[in-house]
Write a structure and sequence with these properties.
alpha+beta, conserved putative lor/sdh protein from methanococcus maripaludis s2 fold, 43% helix, elongated, disordered N terminus
């Protein structure tokens, strides 16, 4: 019994010593050493030996009880309870003081190739891509106006008509104007002046004047020759007349002519005496000579030639004078011809438009009337604004793209358009080269989306919802956006390599609200951490659990 009591006291002391506050205040180094000893085979051997010792005590006590005092059996059983308590306390103390290290668990997913597409949702207003303002082609009076604002018309519908009676009158006036223009031009080439103009054909006015001056000089020279020769002949005739008078100086009756038209000479100055025959013959010979010389003068071939030359020159001069009056300056002639042709073309065009106007003014395409600026009975002038149409066959959606989305769009990208719950196909056809500010003062870029399959259900001016199929990539690395972190160094992800958290910097390409394309930094098969990213640090040990 004494031995059992001593053993119990030792066990109690051991427990107190084990759970003593002094022991719990051990340094971290001693705790690790103790934990190593507890885990070591030596420690376990010591525990086993203690248990065996207890068992031996129990067996000895049991044998003694059975032989000497059988009633002591209850007490002997009571001895084992403290022993078990001591062993359990030791184990509990070990677990409390030296807990097993637990690693955090993370979910990962392998890097795989996939597809990604960035779809931009944006609203805009439906508008016509073509607006036509119809201006009056002619001066006229409107007979009927068949449309009003908001009306839908089809190609070929008559929008308004003119008063055709007034159009007929205007056409006749244009025809008369054409006739007059032709007559005015032809008058400068009259037949009367054609012969004269032929003399001056190819000659300028200065050349005509020079030729006329030359003709004048030539005529003067011919006159001088004619005069000089005629003077010589006349002088001969004069001399012969004097000879005739002096045949018989004493027998000349002063101022008395005979029957044969010559002066009678009487011998001895006796008026009653008869002229001698010799004197008569001499006188007649002189008179014949005078007649011959006079005839020669009047029929002289040289003088005749000169006079003919002078006549021709004078005729040429007369023609040139007339030609000068009828001369047509080439520049003036060209201008006159151009003026006539311009008048003819203008009148032909006006007549053509008058003929077309008699059929009424028609719509060139399916459209909506957006403005009417005329009324029935109104007189309009050519160029006046009449009706405005918006084409509903060529329709577009005008949107404003922010700077954050500007780099994602490009010409030709497909667009899904919804207008009044109706779906249409679209395509980006224009991106403005300059930015403007919207109502909030934010810079935006005007962009045009063409509706490729418009129909009669489209109403201009209403709102359209658009989904732009912007950037797209196939067979590329794609990650959920939640896996990507960002700091001052850029974008990065955490991957698990041999149970250690490792940072990998990445370059992002196409991104959506849920996914991102990874251009650089990852390879197929990398295990990217997708949970508890805010609590992780690079280099930490983790347990791996693959994500779905």
């Amino acid at each position: 019994m004494a031995d059992n009591k001593d053993l119990n006291k030792e066990n109690e002391a051991l427990v107190k010593e084990t759970v003593s506050p002094e022991n719990t205040a051990e340094t971290a180094v001693k705790e690790k050493e103790a934990a190593a000893e507890v885990a070591s085979p030596k420690f376990e051997t010591e525990i086993k030996e203690t248990a065996v010792s207890d068992t031996q005590v129990y067996e000895d006590e049991e044998e003694e009880t059975e032989i000497v005092k059988p009633k002591k059996r209850f007490k002997k059983r009571f001895v084992i309870i403290p022993l078990l308590l001591v062993a359990g306390g030791a184990v509990a103390a070990k677990m409390f003081l030296f807990p097993t290290k637990t690693l955090p668990t993370v979910v990962t997913q392998p890097v795989e190739l996939g597809n990604i597409e960035n779809i931009i949702s944006i609203s805009g207003n439906v508008a016509s891509a073509e607006t036509q303002v119809i201006f009056a082609d002619i001066d006229g009076t409107l007979s009927q106006v068949n449309v009003k604002v908001g009306d839908k018309v089809s190609a070929g519908d008559v929008l308004f008509t003119y008063d055709n009676e007034k159009l007929d009158l205007a056409e006749k006036q244009l025809e008369l104007s054409t006739t007059k223009a032709k007559a005015d031009y032809n008058s400068i080439y009259s037949t009367a002046g054609a012969a004269d103009r032929k003399y001056a054909e190819g000659m300028s006015p200065q050349q005509i004047n020079d030729r006329m001056d030359a003709i004048t000089a030539e005529c003067r020279a011919l006159d001088d020759k004619i005069t000089e020769k005629k003077n010589r002949i006349n002088q001969t005739i004069k001399d012969l007349n004097n000879v005739s008078k002096d045949i018989n100086q004493n027998g000349v009756f002063d101022g008395t002519l005979g029957d044969n038209n010559y002066y009678e000479r009487r011998e001895n100055d006796n008026n009653n005496s008869e002229m001698s025959e010799s004197n008569r013959q001499m006188y007649l010979a002189v008179q014949q000579t005078i007649n011959d010389v006079t005839y020669a003068r009047d029929t002289d071939p040289e003088i005749k030639s000169w006079e003919d030359q002078k006549k021709l020159l004078e005729e040429e001069k007369a023609h040139l004078t007339n030609a000068k009056s009828a001369y047509i300056n080439p520049s003036s002639a060209t201008a006159s011809k151009a003026g006539m042709e311009s008048t003819l073309l203008s009148n032909e065009d006006k007549i053509s438009r008058l003929e077309a106007a008699k059929e009424g003014v028609k719509a060139d395409f399916d459209a909506v009337i957006t403005a009417v600026d005329v009324a029935e009975g109104q007189s309009v002038q050519a160029g006046a604004k009449t009706i405005t149409l918006a084409n509903i066959e060529d329709v577009q959606v005008n949107v404003q793209v922010s700077k954050s989305d500007l780099g994602k769009i490009s010409l030709g990208q497909k667009v899904d358009i919804t207008v009044n719950n109706n779906s249409y196909e679209g395509e980006i056809t224009k991106i403005s080269g300059t930015a403007t500010k919207n109502s909030n003062g934010v810079p935006v870029v005007d962009t045009v989306i063409k509706i490729k399959n418009p129909d009669q259900n489209i109403i201009l001016g209403v709102e359209a919802n658009n989904k732009i199929h912007a950037q797209k990539a196939e067979n590329t690395v794609v990650l959920p956006y939640e896996c990507i972190l960002t700091d001052a160094q850029g974008d990065y992800v955490y991957v698990v390599e041999n149970g250690i958290v490792t940072r990998k910097n990445v370059k992002i390409g196409i991104s959506t609200s849920t996914q991102a394309q990874i251009l650089e930094g990852l390879s197929a098969g990398d295990q990217v951490i997708s949970t508890d990213l805010d609590t992780l640090t690079e280099g930490a040990e983790v347990q791996l659990t693959s994500g779905l």
